[in-house]
Amino acid sequence: MRNFHTHTKRCGHARGNDEDYVIEAIETGISVLGFSDHSPMVFAPENHHSSFRVPLEKAEDYVRSVNSLKEKYKDDIKIYLGYEMEYYPKFFDQTLAFHEQFGYDYLILGQHFTYNEYEKKSIHTGSKNKDLDSFDVFIEQVLTGLQTGKYLYVAHPDLYYYVGRDEDAFLKKNEYYVKELKKLGYPVEFNLLGFYDKRNYPDKRFWEMVAKEGNDVVIGFDAHDPWVLSDMKTYHQALDYLHSLGIEPINDKIEIK
Ligand SMILES: [Zn+2]
Ligand SMILES: [Zn+2]
């Protein structure tokens, strides 16, 4: 089993030591563990304070820690160093340049805000929203992000929490979104945190469309606590749900170059 969605306490809302995640993963029989904490973001020159991500000054510690665990447990598990990172056009290049100085293995695209996060018009995509225009922005931003070629897959692609009444319009946009994702060929993540927590995602309407279009699907634990990596009950419930839709996740086919 391979999991590419794991946080650390540096983002401020996850628990446990990095090593505890690794030990838990080994005990579960996870063969590949990717750390993908919320990416530090270089909001220069705006100086926006973002409270849910690894602070810039903790990035080096994150890299050092994951790299030392890679080495320490190399006979037991393959560990990768990654980030869950939004696509913010204004800050993308400079943030990548920041990461490149330490090196990293992969990025997953988790679009928690629209635009560049700090603007007035930016919305938190996981909060209740009646607005379909922001859904358009969210969709285009995810698709544009993927077109950079820098991401491995889309984390919780169905994060956008629409509570408006125009169900038909929502479904139309959802269909367009899933079809475009399929064209681009990037896997979409079935998020176990949202599934366990009964959040608005995984969104049934999204997954039914995925089943129809045949996108590649990957299960992501989105672990914010080490025990999550051994929660096989949730994992199997998710797998049963996906199977009921005729979806077979491709976790074990995902390779990081
Ligand atoms: Zn996320
Ligand atoms: Zn996450």
Defining key terms:
TIM Barrel; 8 helices; 257 residues; alpha/beta; two-stranded parallel ribbon; binds zinc ion; globular
Q: Could you characterize the architecture of this molecule?
A:
By secondary structure, the protein is an alpha/beta fold. The chain has one domain (2-253): Alpha-Beta Barrel (TIM Barrel), CATH 3.20.20. It is built from 8 helices and 7 strands. The chain has helices spanning 18-28, 59-72, 92-100, 132-147, 167-184, 192-197, 204-213, 232-244; strands at 2-3, 32-38, 78-84, 106-109, 153-154, 188-191, 217-220. Strands 1-2-3-4-5 form a 5-stranded parallel sheet. The chain has a two-stranded parallel ribbon with strand order 6-7. Helix 5 crosses helix 7. The site of one zinc ion (ZN) has 5 residues, from loops.
Strand content: 5-15%
CATH fold call: TIM Barrel
What is the CATH homologous superfamily assignment?
Metal-dependent hydrolases
Total discrete domains:
1
Overall CATH architecture = Alpha-Beta Barrel
Strand order of the largest sheet: 1-2-3-4-5
Helix content: 25-40%
> What gyration radius follows from the Cα positions, in whole Å?
17 Å
Number of strands: 7
Largest sheet properties: 5 strands, parallel
Bound small molecules, which ones? zinc ion
Helix count, DSSP H or I runs of 4 or more residues = 8
Mean pLDDT: 97
Overall CATH class = Alpha Beta
Structural class: alpha/beta
Span between termini: 18 Å
| Shape type | globular
Low-confidence stretches: none
